[in-house]
């Protein structure tokens, strides 16, 4: 009996045809839709739903004890497929929690007396929580020579000008006048002349200066016919604790003399924009005088407004505002407030402190009023009550901004 011949091997062309057929079956769109409609809901259900608890003991009344194996997959198969919008709607939203209040804003309160924070829609009022950071406050700048130039304060993010003057003749004239006035109250002599320091009228900074990474004070004196342009710098490092929460005077030596900068680093401070508002019985008036601001924990003051008689500024109410006033009323309460043009309005103030704004203003050369307001640093916008003095009303408004 002859052995049967071996089976013929399929040719490579036959294998390619079979492979092409399987590819055509897989690429069949109906098959892909069927696999996605069956497998995708099961996968989503297994990912989103927690595993079922173990079956209850026999004889218990729990309805989970009668759950059959595979019932979860069966329920997933009969559940319509979920879309992306459905998944977003079903996912739990995060609960917004208020930031923890700082100790300086809340104060020392016993744990038993603490109340839960108010929420939107509740009867309790919302409390504005201030958050501060180390800021630089420039209180005053002095010079023992007629200073002309610019003084910058830089914190690494931006540099702000605190003083600027360019007329040499005016600077020399004002320096000699201030020294003559100072010598009239002190002993005359060469020692008195050398001890005199002229206080510069600061015009900035107009934005807070951070002290997180240190700061730089730069004095720029322009060139003259006999001298070159001069730049002198003073760098304060963040690890220097001698200036934290207490004023310190730094000396910057130049070829013409010395510049003295009195400043402090307030460890937990915010930016305060100060406005002095007036209600006057005149449509237009010339005003001069002096107004300063002082933090209640310090003895040094920051000058906000300082004008002599020959440099008085105009304060007036616009004609449009006068036309809109009620007819037949001359009371001061119907007159709109007028803002006093301050030379400097942005200050760094510690949280929990109180800002005292005091001074004296003279209107039209003879009408004198006193300004005395005390405002605690709390809330986003604070103001004092209107105070009447010699037929004029004054108030102080502050806009508080956290430096973040």
Structure report:
The protein is of the alpha+beta class and about 400 residues long. It has a domain at about 135-400. About 20% of the residues lie in helices and about 35% in strands. The chain contains 8 helices and 19 strands. The protein has helices at about 10-25, 30-50, 70-80, 85-90, 105, 170-185, 190-195, 320-325, and strands spanning about 135-145, 150-155, 160-165, 200, 210, 215-220, 230-235, 250-255, 260-280, 285-295, 300-305, 315, 340, 345-350, 355-365, 365-375, 380-385, 385-390, 390-400. The strands form 3 sheets. Strands 1, 4, 5, 8, 9, 13, 14, 17, 18 and 19 form a 10-stranded antiparallel sheet that branches.
Structure at a glance:
The protein has 404 residues and is of the alpha+beta class.
N→C terminal distance: 100 Å
**Number of E-state strands:** 19
Structural class given helices, strands, pairing? alpha+beta
Mean pLDDT: 75
3D shape: elongated
Task: Report on the biggest sheet.
Answer: 10 strands, antiparallel
Helix content: 10-25%
From the alpha carbons, calculate the radius of gyration and give it in angstroms. 38 Å
SSE order, as H and E?
HHHHHEEEHHEEEEEEEEEHEEEEEEE
Total number of helical segments?
A: 8
Strand-residue fraction?
25-35%
């Amino acid at each position: 009996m002859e052995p049967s011949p071996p089976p013929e091997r399929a040719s490579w062309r036959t294998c390619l045809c079979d492979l092409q057929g399987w590819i055509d079956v897989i690429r069949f769109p109906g098959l892909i839709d069927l696999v996605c409609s069956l497998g995708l809901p099961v996968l989503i259900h297994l990912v989103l739903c927690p595993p079922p608890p173990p079956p209850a003991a026999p004889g218990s009344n729990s309805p989970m004890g009668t759950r059959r194996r595979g019932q979860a997959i069966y329920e997933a198969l009969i559940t319509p497929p979920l879309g992306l919008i459905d998944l977003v709607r079903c996912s739990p939203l995060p609960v917004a929690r208020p930031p923890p209040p700082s100790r300086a804003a809340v104060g020392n309160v016993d744990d038993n007396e603490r109340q839960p924070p108010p929420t939107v829609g509740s009867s309790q009022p919302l409390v504005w929580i201030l958050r501060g950071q180390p800021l630089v406050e420039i209180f005053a700048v002095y010079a023992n020579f007629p200073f002309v130039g610019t003084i910058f304060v830089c914190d690494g993010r931006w540099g702000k000008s605190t003083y600027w003057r360019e007329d040499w003749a005016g600077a020399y004239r004002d320096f000699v006048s201030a020294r003559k006035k100072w010598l009239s109250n002190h002993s005359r002599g060469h020692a008195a002349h050398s001890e005199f320091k002229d206080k510069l009228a600061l015009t900035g900074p107009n934005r807070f200066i951070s002290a997180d990474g240190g700061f730089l004070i730069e004095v720029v004196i322009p060139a003259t016919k006999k001298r070159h342009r001069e730049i002198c710098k003073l760098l304060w490092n963040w690890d220097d604790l001698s200036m934290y929460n207490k004023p310190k005077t730094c000396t910057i030596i130049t070829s013409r003399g010395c510049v003295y900068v009195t400043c402090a680093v307030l460890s937990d401070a915010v930016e305060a924009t100060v406005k002095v508002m007036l209600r006057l019985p005149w449509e237009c008036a010339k005003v001069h005088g002096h107004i300063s601001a002082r933090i209640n924990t310090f003895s040094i003051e920051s000058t906000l407004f300082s004008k002599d008689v020959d440099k008085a500024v105009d304060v007036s109410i616009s004609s449009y505002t006068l036309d809109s006033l009620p007819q037949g009323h001359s009371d001061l309460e119907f007159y709109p407030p007028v803002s006093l043009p301050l030379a400097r309005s942005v200050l760094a103030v510690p949280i929990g402190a109180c800002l005292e704004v005091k001074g004296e203003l003279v209107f039209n050369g003879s009408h004198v009023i006193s300004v005395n307001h005390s405002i605690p640093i709390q809330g986003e916008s604070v103001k004092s009550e209107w105070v009447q003095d010699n037929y004029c009303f004054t108030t102080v408004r502050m806009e508080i901004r956290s430096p973040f």
